[in-house]
Structures are given as C-alpha cells and as structure tokens.
C-alpha cells in the first residue's frame, strides 16, 4: 500500500529572450559586460577597470580632431605584391581581405586636422589592417606626412598600434625603419615638434623606428610596448624577465617614456603640449 504519492509538477522553462547583437561588449580585462553606448561615450575605456579597448585609425582621428574638417593625405597610394608572396594564402588576397574588413587602403591613415584650434599632421596606425604592420606604403605615407608637416611648419603626431614589420614584403618592409627615421631626423633639424602616442600594442619594427623617436613619447595605460616577444627575449639572454617589463608603466619607471595618459585626457594633453612646444 502506498502511503504517499509524489505530486506531479509541471516544470515551466522560461523562453530565453534573444539579445540583439551589438548592444553589449565583454571587457577583455575584468569580464564585465558593458553597454556599447556607454563604452563609446567613455572613449572605449571600460568604466569598471579602466581597460583601454583597441580603436581603429579613424576612431582615433575623430576622437582627437575638433571636427570632421580634416584633409586626408595619400589615400590613393595602394599597396602591391612585389615579392608575389604566399603563405597559407597569397599576399594579394590578404590585402584585399584587410581592405574590405577595415575600409582602408593600408594600415595607416594620415591627415591634417586641428586639435583645440591648432593645426597638426597626424598619422594613425590601424591594428585591424594586418596587425597594423609596417609595409612599404605605410612607410611612404608616414614620410610624406612628415614632409607635409615640414612644408607647413606644423607639429607631427603618430598614434602607433602595430605588430611590427610586414613579413610579406620582406626587406622592403624593413627598409621603412631607416626611411621613416631619416625623415624624422630632417624634421627635427627644422625645430618642429614630434609627439608619439603608443597604444596597445606597439611592437617590432614600428617600436624600433618612428614610435621611439618622439620629442615626447606618450603611452596609454597598460599598453604592450616592446620589440620582440618575452619568450624570444628570455631564450636569447637566458635570464628571467621582470614582471610587466613590456608595459607602459614599466617603461615609464625606467625612463623610456615621458608620460602615461588616459584616453579621455589625451586630446587636452596633446593640445597643451603643442602650445608649449610651438610657443602658441
């Protein structure tokens, strides 16, 4: 005889509401889910942990420019495939994919614009275009922008975000290191100011050339800055590396940077420095 019977329950499973795409972003540092509108209003800086998300070249330019009244230089210079290079896919195909993905012709955008009323020439690298790698056209556009700044007696600013030289162009890519450095040497002889802003990451041939030659070198918080990766360095010198040795904070402590500036304060900081350096 059954004294107790287990009651029958109807389990109601609530239907999961579909979350529209593009409304939220998960922070890569703290894991917090951030409303995209709030993230954009905060210059793509996490409001919870201050993590600085990557930005594209045009995002950087529009963040710093007074308005959209800027002049883009050399957009019509297109990259080629001089070595007919192919790894898992042809270089020409990689270029086409990067151009379609970013809407850029190459990994750098160079413009003349105004920051708080002061005219400047800016070169901004875009990590989304093949890791912001420096190829022959990137070096050429940087040099032409420097020449424009010399001609017009304007300050020059680079916003660096790069994995280094582009291997698909071999020696032609490596040649851009001395080429851009020489152009900046002539720029310095004219007594004009050059400011380099290093973002996450700034590595390889870019860090070993124009990114490290600024009269003033600024980094964003916790930006990865270096030449080779830590594993390669450790294998080369056969020593343990100090923690965080490739962060902007470590480099600032050891005299390799002039300042670390949070992104919301970057425009006003650049404007103040330009006024001082140009005696405006």
Q: What would you say about this model in short?
A:
The protein contains ten helices and nine strands. The model has no long low-confidence stretch (mean pLDDT 92). It has two domains: 23-53, no CATH class; 55-278, 2-enoyl-CoA Hydratase, Chain A, domain 1 (Alpha-Beta Complex).
CATH superfamily (homologous) name of the largest domain: 2-enoyl-CoA Hydratase, Chain A, domain 1
Structural class: alpha/beta
Amount of helix: 25-40%
The arrangement of helices and strands along the chain is: EEHHEHEEHEHHEHEHHEH
How would a textbook summarize the main sheet? 7 strands, mixed
Number of domains: 2
CATH level-two architecture of the largest domain: Alpha-Beta Complex
The rough form would be described as globular
Enter the CATH topology name of the largest domain: 2-enoyl-CoA Hydratase, Chain A, domain 1
The quaternary organization reads as single chain
List segments where confidence is low: pLDDT < 50 over at least 5 consecutive residues: none
DSSP summary, beta strand count? 9
């Amino acid at each position: 005889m059954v004294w107790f019977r287990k009651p029958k329950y109807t389990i109601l499973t609530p239907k999961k509401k579909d979350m529209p795409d593009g409304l939220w972003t998960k922070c890569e540092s703290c894991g917090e889910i951030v409303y995209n509108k709030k993230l954009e209003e905060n210059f793509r800086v996490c409001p919870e942990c201050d993590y600085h998300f990557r930005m594209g070249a045009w995002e950087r330019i529009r963040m710093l420019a007074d308005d959209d009244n800027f002049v883009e230089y050399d957009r019509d210079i297109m990259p080629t495939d001089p070595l007919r290079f192919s790894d898992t896919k042809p270089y020409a195909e990689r270029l086409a994919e990067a151009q379609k993905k970013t809407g850029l012709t190459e990994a750098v955008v160079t413009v003349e614009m105004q920051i708080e009323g002061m005219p400047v020439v800016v070169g901004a690298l875009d990590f989304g275009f093949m890791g912001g790698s420096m190829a022959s056209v990137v070096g050429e556009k940087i040099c032409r922008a420097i020449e424009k700044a010399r001609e017009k007696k304007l300050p020059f600013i680079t916003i660096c975000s790069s994995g280094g030289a582009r291997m698909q162009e071999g020696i032609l890519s490596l040649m851009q290191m001395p080429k851009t450095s020489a152009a900046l040497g002539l720029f310095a002889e004219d007594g004009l100011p050059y400011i380099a802003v290093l973002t996450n990451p700034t590595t390889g041939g870019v860090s070993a050339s124009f990114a490290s030659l600024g009269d003033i070198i600024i980094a964003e918080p916790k930006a990865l800055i270096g030449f080779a990766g830590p594993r390669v360095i450790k294998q080369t010198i056969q020593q343990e590396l100090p923690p965080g040795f490739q962060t902007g904070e470590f480099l600032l402590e050891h005299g390799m940077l002039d300042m670390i500036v949070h992104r919301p304060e970057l425009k006003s900081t650049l404007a103040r420095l330009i006024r001082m350096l140009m005696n405006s």
